[in-house]
Write a structure and sequence with these properties.
The protein has 745 residues and is an alpha+beta fold. The chain has four domains: 188 residues, Jelly Rolls (Sandwich), CATH 2.60.120.260; 110 residues, Sandwich (Jelly Rolls), CATH 2.60.120.260; 335 residues, Glycosyltransferase; 74 residues, Maltose phosphorylase, domain 3 (Sandwich). The protein contains 15 helices and 38 strands.
């Protein structure tokens, strides 16, 4: 812990966890004068709730929703800020708090409630001043801070924010601000003081990354309907002008239905912001402590109001973009962009399932299926370090990894997954494996291999025969047609977990490698005996069963190809895979010499498939293949239009279409295998992309030239390379302007 200070709070209303909405936001401030020339000034801050910090009339940083979400009963994150250049002789440091994850709503359906961690927001901070003469002064939070309430009447991540500008405090962080009417802050001992510690956040903060100018699509006398043109996560920043007491209500949604905003799929999340005008010229409304998953926004005016300007601000964790993909097919380009936008919309401190409805949880299955795709798109090393810490912290005493992390102290989603749901629990091994492959940092293995071992200890105790039974309810979630048998999926992922443990042990020289290698072989043999008949058919006989079993080394290429080809004949060329199977579908088809089917799937506009959503207006990946159909309209019940799981095809775009294959034996892309699969159907005639490794940019481009393909790779000289072309004849090869260029037939 890098700082130690008092926790403070301020009661702005009655404390009632059962109330539908929370209390007004508390505001805090503290003045101080410098005692000499400052060499360095560092501000540390944490909260049970969310904070926005100000110094001398300006925000300390451009971050929002800090310090983020963890299981606050285990630890509380903090950020540090360099404020050296923001100081003056006379200064004021201030903060305003919002309910956030700690006090506001979390969860979904019957497990959607407030105050999961605490019943009030609390704040702690310390300003460390290092003077040029070597002395150090520390200004902590304590009872000397002033406190009051102001314009933010209530805030909630799911419900939205209400701001009454008539109660605005003015420039409350200015040094000469008159705070004589403010009260004293209350020092508190946080309820978790016996068990938690402050830990510097592992992940960059959430910031505004993109801005859109919404388009007006419908107007009545007092109501405006806007289209941002992109499904996104964030807020609207509006400037209004009008009479005192006039009110603007902003509702958010992903779709329009019958020419009106559709919000039924949000369930209990109100996703509504309200602004009451002070009647003093141009007034800016930009919520501080909420975000919404939306494409459309409805503004309803009560009283005399003029909308001066409107802008949509896209928020997500401040991750550097590391990769890009494009090709000659506008449809496939849109699929890639949809997956990228779903990543953006769901990477707000935690890799969530969706950003719009009453859920927004860190589902482990979604996270592990998409993690390699995510790592190509953005530098996710710190983002997944943080999420792995959440997973490890959530692990139960018997070794089970729950389906969601961070965990709440109580609630439905803390109890489902207590049977270790296959494909969700194994995230504790999958994400470290892909993280090491991509970034080459063995610390990720040393930190989280013990958690994977404890999970396997549970499996061995639970299923000594090697066959896991019918526990969990997820399996190949949201697949179509015949469901893959749960015991099949559970046992496949049991084998996968053992293989991952053996590999991770090998990478760091752990002595238990052979134990887990033997466990993998035991489970593999048990699976084959239990679930594969004499004709090589896997019990339940689904596309996902074959592609997962092949990818996990349970069945060989010949067995897989025969049965997978049969399954596609039976489905008339349509895919049927769900969340787990979809990641392995296109790669397996290419590996088995069936790349024509892979390219037909990725370029098809028919249901089910990625292209079907695109031609129906999708700008993000849908949760279901049938989230919307022409015949059925919008699917009722659980239905998100911003869910990245089916976007795991992004990994195939980089690794198979472009041919970029990081070598796990030389992690961190010190060596790369280039093994592209060109489109035999002719739907895609060229493709291009890059990945920015720690060693520099790797650029790949190919295009069809007559009956041949030109394949060009440019990479830094320190990266070793190997090329394999799936049996294609090399007509010529050369080095040209620092690039490797092949002509292939």
């Amino acid at each position: 812990m890098l700082f130690d200070s008092k926790w403070i709070t301020y009661q702005t209303g009655e404390i009632d966890p059962a109330a539908k909405y929370g209390n007004p936001s508390p505001y805090f401030r503290r003045t101080f004068a410098l005692k000499g020339k400052v060499k360095k000034a560092t501000l540390f801050a944490a909260a049970l709730g969310l904070y926005k910090l100000y110094l001398n009339g300006k925000p300390v940083s451009d971050d929002y929703l800090s310090p983020g979400w963890v299981d606050y009963s285990k630890k509380i994150p903090f950020y540090r800020y360099d404020v050296t250049e923001k100081l003056a002789e006379q200064n004021a440091l201030a903060a305003v708090l919002g309910d956030g994850w700690a006090v506001g709503y979390i969860g979904s359906t019957d497990s959607f409630y407030r105050c999961s961690y605490n019943d009030r927001v609390e704040f702690t901070a310390l300003l460390r001043l290092e003077y040029a003469d070597g002395t150090v002064e520390e200004i902590p939070t304590d009872a000397s801070w002033k406190a009051t309430k102001g314009a933010i009447f209530r805030s909630d991540l799911y419900m939205g924010e209400v701001v009454d500008a008539r109660l605005d405090l003015g420039n409350f962080s200015a040094a000469d601000y008159d705070d004589s009417a403010w009260d004293e802050a209350e020092e508190v001992v946080t309820k978790f003081s016996h068990s938690v510690y402050l830990e510097e956040s592992l992940v960059p903060p959430t910031v505004v990354k993109h801005r859109f100018q919404p388009k007006l699509v419908k107007q009545t006398d007092n109501q405006y309907l806007y289209d941002v043109t992109q499904n996104m996560a964030g807020v609207l920043r509006c400037v209004f002008r009008g009479e005192r007491g006039a009110q603007v209500v902003i509702r958010h949604g992903e779709l329009l239905w019958e020419d009106a905003l559709y919000t039924k799929n949000l369930r209990k999340a109100e996703a509504t912001d309200t602004f009451i005008l002070a009647g003093e010229g141009d007034e800016v409304f930009r919520p501080l402590f909420t975000f919404h998953g939306f494409r459309y926004a409805e503004l309803t005016f009560t009283g005399k109001v003029e909308l001066v300007s409107i802008e949509a601000e896209v928020m997500y964790t401040d991750l550097k973009k590391s990769g890009e993909f494009s090709c000659s097919s506008p449809l496939v380009n849109r699929i890639y962009q949809n997956a990228l936008w779903s990543q953006r919309g769901n990477f707000i401190n935690v890799p969530t399932d969706c950003p719009q409805r009453d859920e927004r949880l860190g589902w482990a299955g979604d996270a592990q299926i998409f993690c390699q795709s995510a790592m190509y798109n953005m530098d996710c090393r710190d983002f997944y370090r943080k999420y792995l810490a959440d997973l490890s912290s959530a692990q139960l005493g018997n070794g089970i990894i729950p389906v969601v992390a961070p965990r709440r102290p109580m609630g439905y989603h803390d109890y489902v997954g207590y049977d270790a749901s296959a494909g969700w629990a194994e995230a504790i091994g999958e994400i470290p494996y892909h993280h090491y492959r991509t970034y080459g940092d063995k610390r990720i293995i040393r930190d989280y291999l013990p958690s994977l071992k404890r999970l396997l200890d549970y499996y061995e105790t639970e299923s000594p025969s090697g066959i896991r039974g019918y526990m969990s309810k997820y399996g190949d979630w949201l697949s179509l047609g015949t469901k893959t048998d749960l015991s099949v999926v559970n046992t496949l992922y049991y084998a996968r977990a053992a293989w991952l443990a053996a590999e991770l042990c090998r990478f760091i020289g752990d002595f238990e490698e052979e134990r887990y290698r033997a466990l993998y072989e035991k489970v593999r043999a048990a699976f084959r005996e239990k679930f594969i008949d004499e004709e090589g058919i896997i019990f339940s006989d689904t596309q996902s069963a074959y592609v997962i079993a092949y990818s996990f080394g349970i069945i060989n290429a010949e067995e897989t190809k025969e049965n997978l080809a049969r399954k596609f004949r039976e489905s008339e060329g349509k895919l049927t895979t769900g969340f787990l199977g979809i990641k392995f579908l296109l790669p397996t088809l290419c590996d088995l010499g069936m790349s024509d089917i892979a390219y037909r799937l990725i370029t098809s506009t028919e249901y089910p498939g990625w292209g079907f959503s695109v031609v129906n207006g999708a700008t993000t990946i849908w949760e279901r293949w049938d989230s919307y159909t022409i015949e059925g309209g919008i699917r009722k019940g659980m239905n998100s239009f911003n869910h990245y799981s089916f976007g795991s095809c992004t990994q195939w775009m980089y690794e198979y279409c472009l041919g970029l294959r990081p070598d796990v034996e030389h992690p961190g892309l010190k060596k790369v295998l280039f093994a592209p699969y060109f489109d035999p159907t002719g739907a895609i005639e060229s493709a291009e992309g890059h990945y920015d490794s720690d060693h520099g940019r790797i650029h790949i481009a190919w295009e069809k030239k007559g009956d041949a393909f030109e394949y060009r790779v440019t990479l830094p000289p320190q990266i070793e390379s190997d090329f394999r072309f799936d049996g294609r004849k090399i007509l010529s090869q050369k080095e040209e302007n620092g690039s490797f260029v092949f002509l292939l037939q």
